[in-house]
Amino acid sequence: MKLALLAVSVALCSAKAIPPSFDVNPQPRRGDALSWETFSLEGRQQKEMTFEQVKAAVAKEYNAQVPDGTLKLKWDFKPECSKCKDKQVQDEKDKAKCRDCKKGTKPNPNHTKCIRDDTGCAEDEIQTPDKQCQKCDANKVADDTGKACKDKDANSDKKGKCPDGQILDPAQGGQDANTEKPKCIGDDDKKCPEGETAETRRANRKVDNEADYEPSCAPDDDPNHKCDDKNTYDHRHAVDGKIKHTCRSTRKTQEDKQKKYKERVDSAKGKKDVNDKDKRNKARRTRAGWCWLMLASIEAPAFTTEELQDLTQDELDGMIDTWPDENILTPPDEGEIPDHKVKISPILRVSTVGESSAAGFGGIASAVIRFFAKLFGKAGKGSGGGGSSGIRSAVKELKTGGRSAASGKAIQSAKSSTKVQKMLKEPRYLDCLSTAPAIMLSHAGLPQNNKAFDGSSAEVDVDWSRKPDPKLKPLPEGTEDQRITLHFSDETDKSHSAIPLQTYHDSYIRAFRLYYEACQKPKALYDLDNKITDVNTQGGCCAFYDGGNCEADTIMFAMTNRQDGKLRGDHDNAISSFWCTFDLGCNGAPGM
User: Fold this and answer.
1) Where does the record place Basic and acidic residues bias (predicted)?
2) Is the separation of the CB atoms in 236 and 197 below 8 Å?
3) What does the buried/exposed string (b/e) look like for 501-535 if buried means 16 or more CB atoms within 10 Å of the residue's CB?
4) Are 214 and 201 a contacting pair, CB within 8 Å?
């Protein structure tokens, strides 16, 4: 330490005689020898000095050893400048970052510190009676008046104007120490053991008594984690026994987005140009096609097998392009209802084949398949024809609004059709057209009462708040005509009479869905954990496990396109989970 201080002192003392970058030879250049005992630094300006004399004098001043050899000295006389601009200054804790000046302060000319607007003093200075700035003692800062020093509270920014024991809720966002009536939560970190931090509380969780609340704590390898984006907050949750940090949008950010959405909706009202009209009609056509297809699939009233008989392509196209009631809001975006928002619950009844009537191709009832086969199966390329591929194209076009706008002839056919007019007036169809996110209905002043609609084979519920199922993996391309079915029973040779689990080429929420290449437990109508004795796998390969999460070391056997009416030995009444794939060798299954 002394040697480093000596080198700096030599640099300062010799700056007048040595260029900015120079290899200094320790040999004397000129001047008489200087007495070690009698020379003092105060006299260095009285006579020209050699480098050896400077080294010796500075060493004596700081009671240090005189260094041997050559020193390389370099000076940079440029003033220190901050890269921070506007109302920001250099962060004292991290010089590479900038921070905002608080309300009532502004950056100094070099943007290295914030100064008060009224006194011109820094945040750690107070103004004396003679209008001078005086620095506060260590660990103290100026109070709000700037006239007295107070203890520096490291948590003052977090506490703001919250009651004792509480801090500003970081998930709220947009709050600081000056926020009036802030949203606060308990300071959970203070209740955690040393070296641990608290998990972020679940949204909207109410605590009757903060003093009694026990947070979930875990070791934290990055306790000072910060999110650079001011629109996010540090969300913490435990993973494998340690705190994991993620930056998530604050509630204020989400509210701002909703506000902007409302402004966009409001600004769009009254616009009648061609582009808006085309977009509106496309969204309506998409929603109408989706609703027609779904109601026909579940055989809702007015959409039964009998009603579909003899329906022409013109009548269908004309109906899809007819919006039955202008008081029904045009659907948002493209008019589609994402699959994961939709839950299909079959209405169970005795069946000789062990399947519900809604278990046909892609979840579409067999009556609809026959209808499309007749209507589109032999049509040309432009009409989506071509066997099963033509049927799939027609289904996709109806769900996504891909069919062209109806001709005048088709519109007239729909108006003249008693079947179409009956469908257009069916309450379930109108409910389906009307379903929309709650925020959209609220802005339009309409009741938020999305209704489920049912048919003879199933009930359909649309929940716009529903999130995608993370276990739902898309089926491989080229398997549109394939599916895996898994029958099982707790009775010998009875799996054929049970409703099977099966794969679907959609993302609807289904009670009897068989997940593709994902672990699944034997639960459908009731729990069959460790009760299965009869298994039947068709269309692919399924691996079966004694463990509840398809652990590799608990695999018992795999089955491809066959039935075992009575499992033998340790496999009987032992299945707790299974994993299925189109690969006939079950490649990819845990433990295979």
Assistant:
1) 144-162, 178-209, 252-279
2) yes
3) bbbbbbbbbbbbbbbbbebbbbebeeebeebbbbb
4) no
β partners of residue 218: 197
Q: What share of the chain is helix, strand, coil (3-state, %, to 5)?
A: 30, 20, 55
- CATH 2.60.20.10 fits domain 485-581: yes
Per-residue pLDDT at 155: 54
Query: Alpha-carbon distance 182 to 184, whole Å?
Result: 6
DSSP 60-108: HHTT-PPPPS-EEEE---SPP-----TTEEE-SS-TTSEEEPPTTEEE-
- The pLDDT tens digits for 80-138 are 556 788 888 888 777 788 888 887 889 998 888 898 888 889 888 888 888 888 888 87
Among candidate residues 116, 110, 150, the one with its CA nearest the CA of residue 133: 116
Q: How far apart are CA 143 and CA 470, in angstroms?
A: 52
CA distance 495 to 197: 51
CA–CA distance from 394 to each of 17, 137, 400, 409, 495 (Å)? Answer: 90, 79, 10, 20, 35
Classify each residue of 189-221 as buried b or exposed e, where b means 16 or more C-beta atoms within 10 Å of its C-beta: beebeeebbbbbbeeeeeeeeeeeeebebbebe
User: What does the pLDDT look like over 277-291, one tens digit per residue?
Assistant: 888 899 999 999 999
* Structural domain boundaries in the chain: 2-74, 157-251, 274-462, 485-581
- Does residue 340 contact residue 513 with C-beta atoms inside 8 Å? no
Q: What is the pTM of this model?
A: 0.51
Task: Identify the band that residue 165 occupies on the pLDDT scale cut at 50, 70 and 90.
Answer: confident
Nearest to 131 by CA among 115, 122, 119, 149: 119
Kindly report, residue by residue over 477-502, the tens digit of the pLDDT. Answer: 989 889 999 999 999 888 888 888 99
Please give the Cα distance from 23 to 467 (Å, whole number). Answer: 69
Contacts of 399 (CB under 8 A, 6+ apart): 286, 289, 290, 293, 336
| Residue 55 near residue 68 (C-beta atoms within 8 A) | no
Report d(CA 370, CA 384) in Å as an integer. Answer: 15
Decide: 576 and 544 in contact? Cβ < 8 Å. no
Contact 464, 520 (CB under 8 A): no
> Which residues, in sequence order, are CB contacts of 423 under 8 Å at separation 6+?
292, 302, 303, 307, 319, 429
Give me the half-sphere count of Cα atoms (radius 13 Å) on the Cβ side of residue 568: 2
b vs e for 416-455, b when ≥16 Cβ sit within 10 Å of the residue's Cβ?
A: ebebbeebbebebbbbbbbbbbeebbeeeeeeeebeebbb
Angle between helices 366-376 and 313-320 (to 10 degrees): 110
185 beta partners: 167
- The per-residue DSSP string of 203-233 comes to TT---S-GGG----EEE-S-TT---SSTTEE
Q: Are strands 184-186 and 166-168 parallel, antiparallel or unpaired?
A: antiparallel
Give the chain's count of helices (H) and strands (E): 13, 25
Question: Could you give the percent of the chain with pLDDT greater than 90?
Answer: 29
> DSSP characters for 499-521?
PPEE--SS--EETTB--SSS-B-
Length of the chain: 592
